[in-house]
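Section 4.2 – Deliverable D4.2 (structural model, holo form)

The reporting period included a commitment to supply a predicted holo structure for the target in complex with ribose-5-phosphate. Inputs used:
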Amino acid sequence: MKIVAGSASKHVARFLAGSLGAQLVEVQAKRFPDDECYVRIMESLDGEEVVLVQTTHPDRNLVEALLLQDAIREFRIRKLITVIPYMAYARQDKKFNEGEAVSARAMAKTVSLRSDGIVLVDVHDEKITGHFTVPAVNVSAMPRIGEYLVKSARVDLVVSPDDGAMHHAKAVAEVVGCNWSWLEKKRIDGTTVEIAPKHIGAKDREIAIVDDIISTGGTILTATNQLKLQGARKVIAACTHGLFTSGALPKLRATVDYVLSADTIENETTIVSAGPEIAKGVRKLLEKA
Ligand code: R5P
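Output (structure tokens):
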């Protein structure tokens, strides 16, 4: 098996290769003066099962993924599994208003075209796997976040900002060996959220808030303020996908005690790798085939 790493996913691809005992392939990727992308696979992939790893955010990384799929298919490969550590455009997974695109579906169909299987990580909604036209599995980085917290903190409560993410809180708490709960979030608009003053026994606790994505940081900031109002001793924010748009990180660091993320989007808070969990997804797909 050979692993092809796109330029957005080198860290996670290295850990994936380690977990699968597979070899990373040398890839040349560069940009022309007009920012168009050029890729070249530097060794033969004939006869191989190939795993391509590339986050599709921002758009330029999606284009690189499509070119890499094309380059890989130039060889006589046995199979191509495309791993999308962070699937962009997944949050619009249905039509809210007449005339809208369902972006999750559009992306899913496009990346399926040259793949035999897809692995996603903490995709916004598990149902999105149904939009791919080839078998797709979703794995979670939450167990790895839990393992990191066991080693580096003394968390005694794990919470999610809303009920939609409670399965993440549960998954982390199971590894940490502590209680879990969830808050009640209401999204007002793209940058504003409200968290209801739900009492979850935060007083004197070291709490980890976990979510799939941190984008503007509004959700985590509002949740942290609520937990600190309730007397939380320490608040750690952990997510799989650290987008940190609109200067979110300095704002978060002013309020939250510690911020961490997985390597689905490489950034300065990346401390855990989703690679070992992705390896399980790849094996599952290959066993099914
Ligand atoms: C929403 O459903 C997601 O799970 C996250 O809670 C959301 O994307 C976080 O966004 P922000 O950091 O902008 O509040």
